[in-house]
Records
---
Amino acid sequence: MKPAVNGYKWRLVISYEGTKYAGWQYQVSPPTVQCFLEKALNCATKLERKDLCLVGAGRTDAGVHALGQVAHFVTPFNYGSLDGIHAALNGILPDDIRVREISPAVPEFHARFSAEGKTYHYKIYNDAVMDPMQRHFAYHSACKLNADVMREAAKHFVGIHNFSAFANTSNSDRVRNPVKSIFRFDVVEMGALLQLEVEGSGFLYRQVRNMLEGKHFLLISFQVCWHRKIEGSLLNMSCLLHLTGFVL
């Protein structure tokens, strides 16, 4: 394999149950997924954090789970076989974090900037009594939600839009283009579970959370309120949030 500028580059696909973690981004306390992964890589490779240059495809908030988050790291040496380091990492990591895949990456690959799309899933347990097995994975709404109305609202997000109204400001973020492309926004019914699936080319800081969440879930109105455009931003926010059954 051709070495990268700073060594050989390796691609990881990671899954984690994020209940105990303060998201992906590195910090020592409270603990994050990146912190534990870097410690495991340090043990397995004997390299320091500054030499590993571990980068994730994106940040996640506290308590968020991942099925297949991509990351990369570099080493000054090559591996003839990756079976050993793969087993070592999963042996060191806590049970709620797993490296699903490890593979060589070309020097040009970057976990964040090479991403062609990202998908977020939000789950709502829509029943009078919450299933305790879902308590870490779904929001509980005892009020009956109207999935058809939610689908109608979701259509207005799909396409290329200016999402400035749905982004939080972060001092650590570089300036980004607020125009993003949403490929699909599906509302999937699975018994008592409603799964909201949002796929796009990329997202602004907390964009998807702000699109889907508010302080409280409401009983959805059966009357559809149509959106209207306002100067430079996507939608009349209060109209859309009531349409989807959420309020800020």
---
Amino acid sequence: MLLEQGLVDHIVVSNKSVAKIYVRNNTPCNQTDSEVVQETLPAQYKYYFDIGSVESFEEKIEEAQKALGIVDHEPSYYSQRLATLTPGFAGAEIANVCNEAALIAARGEQTQVTMQHFEAAIDRIIGGLEKKNRVISKLERRTVAYHESGHAIAGWFLEHAQPVLKYVPNESVVTTKEQLFDKTCVSLGGRAAEQVLVGRISTGAQSDLLKVTKMTYDQVAKYGFSEKVGMLSFPDSSEMSKPYSSMRAAIIDKEVREWVSKAYERTVELIEKHKEKVAEIAELLLEKVLYQEDLVHVLGERPFKPAEPTSYDRFKKGFQEEEEEKKEVEENPDDEDSTPLEPRVVEN
């Protein structure tokens, strides 16, 4: 990160071994380009930092930011967390996230870019602008809330499923039959919640049903999970060019219907068992975006511990590491030879 735009725009270099950063005395302006100047600076500059040599600029710039209070954490604090939230992002996309975070902070008249701004920026980049002008009735909002709550409950209480959270799920190279079955149940959790708690079903589950249909056909016709079809794998094909007979097609269709029905029955049983929790989560969703801490508060810890850390665990671990580093610094202060970088008042 650089110092706030418009706040620092002059770097004075006396020679290769002496360099200073001058900081504006007034509010940020439109002047954003750094300049190398030799003349005496006017009174609009309030502070300067002796950074030693030009080569140490990158190292000292972070200390200057902390001394001024422009940033509240080291860059590594953000990089560890943003790496979890932005898998597969190119450099330009990450730069776009940083720019969008700064804009969000500026709209809120904030002087610092925080983790909340970065998360909002990622939502903006991935999901687009929030549609605040869409008219939706209270009944529709409640139906959507219960639908999403059903997904969350199913993901929380199924052993081989991943919790439905705002964070990116773990990427898997191979997936087991049990994982796919639980994933099917999670996808059907919204429809089951509508049936059990709302009392009627809606079109909101269309995308879920498309996902379930493809996933189940793949298990039966591609992955060789069905005993009736056998260990065969058929490529995607149109109705006009199926690489199997109509009798085998009927067997595949029947297997898919039975598998989906079995998954839905299990999901309905799960929603019935935890319907009070479904309702509680739904009511909270009507008020705010929920994070894992909110789910833990309502549902308790997940009954199943993953064999490896999840993406959210890695995201959360960064905070824990930061706290541990802070404690180490407090317990082991710097040596006397190490002098912290402090702003000095410009004398005119």
---
Amino acid sequence: MKRPRYTKNQLFREIECGLSIEETADLCCKHINTVKAWDRGREMPECCRRLMRLNTGRVISHKKNWEDFKISHDHIVTPTGETITPQQILLAQALMYGQDKETLQTSSKLLRLARAVAKILVLERR
């Protein structure tokens, strides 16, 4: 019995990015026959590869300063392996802007509230 041979483009699309032919065609704004041609070995444009990587969260940006950051579901994964939610990013931004004593006290209260909300959200997921 003959095993099907996969091209590097097909392996990239199916295994690495987890995309179907239809999803790839839609994402890259290409015809299904074009994606099938890539699967048969025709050269895939680098911009489509990059778009597929961005879509699957394997890469956030092609810029050097984002090199080791990734997206996993609804979190950003830092180079150290920590996950950051959008709410944490917004909170950090808010904390960075205020530096006077009153703002620091407010920030401290906000941080305590955010931790309490995070605990509640974790408990709801269980």
